[in-house]
Write a structure and sequence with these properties.
650 residues, alpha/beta, Rossmann fold, Arc Repressor Mutant, subunit A, 4 domains, 6-stranded parallel beta sheet, 25 helices, binds adenosine-5'-triphosphate, binds magnesium ion
Length: 650
């Protein structure tokens, strides 16, 4: 593709971003204004004009999925070969390359959950902490490491940052120190350690830093508002004294400050780079004027620091956002599933619909409701596509066929036919099996691979089986699942940067949004920004709902999220929907624990409705929320610890 044609799909401001191929660039703009599009086209333009070779570009994105999508987009624009990774994936890759060269010995094992180690550390400190406290302490240690505070600095830092840990700060500091000691003794590396160690290796070994800087000369960071001090330090080390850095972000979408991220690097970019080119984007290309109006309304009500990044809708009018109130969460899920079904029947593809919630624990109710309504769904964050047995088998077969060589390509069948043929050996056929069982799930996985081959052939008609296998391997290493046909179920955190035609924001009740443990004004404002992120994911249909009680017949009545005050009646379709209670689904199988979801076997537990060691009603929401948000962060940024990189690309 010609470099100039890459600029064609951009408005003048986006074009200015793409054309500023060198030096520091900062784009500060609201959701849906084309920030990600602008940087994608910028990279394509810079590589196609020959300003920089693709291998010299490091694009840092927030999730592995975003990284994968950026690579696919670049391939479509005729600019393959760019490295797009999360901070963690980039760090791990560099670390595993340099480990045998400058450190030696057994590489550490990566732990993606701190809980076990924190429990051991607490015990060694003579503290007896419950599950909730342990999770809280693990979160505090993560925060301290991300914000680069040592154990002895923690008590003062926690006061300055107005955090309210549930355990005494001095005790957290003791556990933190012990945690680090045990971690070193056991040769373990946590997520923060991965970044720290990479930065340390680069700082201490000049030749290593030179090698990395020789490889990467051109840096682009998406979602820069959620960069934390540790990531920023690593970025600075990568850059050295150079300044080919382009960052884009939206301060109103800062949703990770509870883990130490801060929009101050985005807002202070010009102070750090006085000669930076600053571009503002205001046209919202994603959402209808109705959705944009609600998004602007959510941010207008923000207290304290708020950033007036007005969005000006470009799309045609669409339906008004819908607000629905239900008796309980089961009724809410049932009706949401029914309405998703209706949209699909009206012609909206299932993959263009998302149901987003504040905490992952809400997902189970929706899975059951969707299954009952016969709506296919895909879980975001939990999917582990490349670890599914049928996918592993298919990859082995495809690899074998690619190795067997040219015969598959020379008989004139082309990539699509070859891939379909190989997949048929793994049980793939053109038509899905009846029903929604395991056979169907298996078919869906294989169909996704077949679709990927079609997409690849469309992007690059010359691509053959070896290129396809290489793409699969790259995706597997990055855990970048191909698009699967189904309604997306995801947390608001995981939905960042993505978009769908229809979005259902579920559970918009006090206690869930804002989440029950959000206490300080800063925490409350972060919850409001989560709503802004959720609202701005919708292109056309947007629906917000909440339930008055958690379970059928439940007595704890909740009220709709305070963030909706004054917004629900701005639009015309506020309509409490009461679902007929007699139609409620009967759950099959053993009764699950209300708190952790495990099947209850003991009679006493069934009577309680929860496992004996799960917290009682009072602490329930807090427990679920805490259990969840840690998992959420690590799931989104997780990279497999077993990946061995064989090539020398850092
Ligand atoms: P977010 O803040 O949510 O990450 P963003 O600013 O990164 O949003 P994009 O995802 O890049 O926005 O763009 C939003 C949508 O608008 C995408 O579907 C994109 O293709 C489309 N879009 C962006 N710019 C243009 C344009 N100039 N012309 C047409 N469509 C555009
Ligand atoms: Mg984006």
């Amino acid at each position: 593709m010609l470099a100039e044609s890459v600029l064609e799909g951009l408005d003048p401001e986006q074009r200015a971003v793409a054309e500023a191929v060198q030096g520091p660039v900062c784009v500060l703009a609201g959701a849906g204004t084309g920030k990600t599009r602008a940087i994608t086209h910028r990279i394509a333009y810079a590589t196609l004009t020959g300003v920089v070779t693709p291998q010299r570009v490091l694009a840092v994105t927030f999730t592995t999925r975003a990284a994968g999508e950026l690579r696919s987009r670049l391939r479509q624009l005729g600019a393959p070969g760019v490295q797009a990774r999360t901070f963690h994936a980039a760090a791990l890759r560099q670390l595993s390359y340099f480990w045998p060269r400058v450190i030696g010995g057994d590489p550490p094992k990566i732990v993606d959950s701190k809980i076990g180690l924190v429990a051991d550390a607490a015990r060694a400190c003579g503290l007896s902490l419950g599950r909730t406290e342990l999770r809280d302490v693990a979160g505090e240690i993560e925060w301290a490491k991300v914000t680069q505070h040592r154990p002895e600095d923690y008590p003062a830092a926690v006061v300055r940052a107005a955090r309210r840990p549930s355990t005494e700060a001095v005790d957290v500091a003791r556990v933190y120190a012990m945690y680090e000691q045990l971690r070193r003794e056991r040769n373990l590396l946590d997520f923060e350690g991965m970044l720290e160690l990479t930065a340390a290796v680069l700082t201490e070994h000049r030749e290593v830093a030179n090698q990395v800087r020789e490889q990467y000369r051109y840096f682009v960071v998406d979602e820069f508002q959620d960069v934390n001090p540790l990531q920023k330090m690593l970025l600075d080390v990568w850059l050295g004294d150079r300044d080919d850095l382009c960052v884009v972000g939206d301060p109103n979408q800062t949703i990770y400050s509870f883990t130490g991220a801060t929009p101050s690097y985005l807002l202070g970019f010009t102070r750090e780079h006085p000669d930076a080119k600053v571009v503002k984007l205001v046209r919202d290309y994603r959402s209808t004027p109705q959705v944009v109006r609600l998004a602007n309304g959510v941010i207008d009500q923000a207290k304290g620091t708020r950033h007036r990044l007005e969005l000006v809708a470009q799309r045609e009018n669409g339906p008004e956002p819908v607000f629905n109130e239900y008796d309980d969460e089961v009724a809410e899920a049932d009706d949401t599933a029914r309405r998703a079904r209706k949209l699909i029947d009206e012609g909206v593809p299932a993959r263009e619909i998302a149901i987003l919630f504040r905490i992952n624990a809400q997902s189970e109710t929706y899975e059951a409701a969707l299954a009952a309504a016969g709506v296919p769904y895909v879980l975001r964050g939990a999917e582990r596509f490349f670890e599914r047995p049928e996918v592993r088998e298919a990859v082995v077969r495809l690899r074998g066929a690619a190795r067997a060589g040219a015969d598959a390509e020379t008989d004139g069948t082309g990539l699509i036919m070859t891939v379909r043929h190989v997949l048929s050996g793994a049980g793939f056929s053109d038509r899905p099996p009846e029903g929604a069982g395991a056979a169907r799930a298996r078919w869906e996985s294989l169909a996704a691979l077949a679709q990927l081959a079609e997409d690849m052939a469309a992007d690059d008609p010359k691509a053959g089986l070896p290129e396809f296998v290489a793409e699969l391997e790259e995706r597997a290493a990055a855990q970048h699942a191909p698009p699967l046909e189904g309604v997306t179920l995801a947390s608001l955190h995981a939905a960042k940067g993505l978009e769908w035609d229809a979005v259902f924001l579920a559970g918009m009740a006090e206690g869930t949004l804002p989440i029950v443990y959000a206490k300080t004004p800063e925490q409350i404002e972060e919850e409001r920004r989560l709503l802004y992120v959720g609202v701005t994911r919708a292109r056309v249909h947007l629906s917000l709902s909440w339930a008055l009680a958690r379970s059928p017949g439940g007595s704890q009545l909740r009220r709709p999220s305070r963030f909706l005050d004054g917004l629900t009646d701005k639009t015309t379709t506020h309509m409490p929907a009461r679902v007929d209670r007699t139609k409620r689904r009967v759950t099959k199988g053993p009764q699950p624990c209300r708190v952790c979801g495990r099947p209850l076997t003991a009679a006493v537990e069934r009577k309680l409705g929860r496992c004996e060691d799960c917290p009682s009603e009072l602490n329930e929401e807090l427990f679920i929320a805490l259990k969840d948000w840690r998992a959420e962060v690590s799931a989104e940024q997780r990279i497999p610890a077993y990946v061995v990189f064989t090539d020398a690309t850092l």
